[in-house]
Design brief:
Number of strands: 8
Number of helices: 6
Strand content: 15-25%
Strand order of the largest sheet: 1-2-3-4-5
Oligomer: single chain
Order of helices and strands: EEHHEEEEHEEHHH
Number of domains: 2
Radius of gyration: 24 Å
Length: 220
Amino acid sequence: MPPGHPTHGPVYSALVPFPKRLLNSYETIKVDMHPHWWYLTPSVAALAVSVGFSVWALTLGDSNADKALKVVGIVLLVASGLWALIRYMLWVTTHFVVTSDRVIFRQGVLRKVGVQIPLERVNNVNFEQTIFERLLGAGDLLIESGGADGQQTFEDIRHPDRVTNIIHEAIEENTVSAARPGVADTGLDVAGQLERLEGLAQRGSITWEEFEAQKRRLLG
């Protein structure tokens, strides 16, 4: 299918949507998701084991050893409960977002950290899945960009194969829109547009003849 004709619709799976105030006025969201639920599994499993151990300890007698086991059970229960709560808060406040202009990763409850990759700087997008992750619908996304960070790895992404296709389509759509005559400038310089067009040609989304034609147009 030619560039500019997306085959995948927007993906919205975030319990708490990404703040619209952080988007530019011309941006539209194509993907907005929290990490896969597998991200919560270690802390939930630890909490379940702690609950089981605590219930068992409470059935013991009143000897010093039994009392010590009860204290251990309570400590483990509190610690695992706090871990599960913190993990859940991080899950809720972690967003992987693809817009019509960039890829955004944002995480943090009080202290926020994040990564923003303009689509025109994305050189390659790959994903990795083990057999088990394929069954779960999870995996890692690897994005190579022209920035200083080089390659970024995003873990526990839902359906990374589909997200990879959506990012490629967003890049193509963004490139075609920016290169189309009569479309308002979105802030990209000529070098950025050429770099993005070259990436499309390398991926086979456009031919090298089309790249040269767009290059001649951009250079006047």
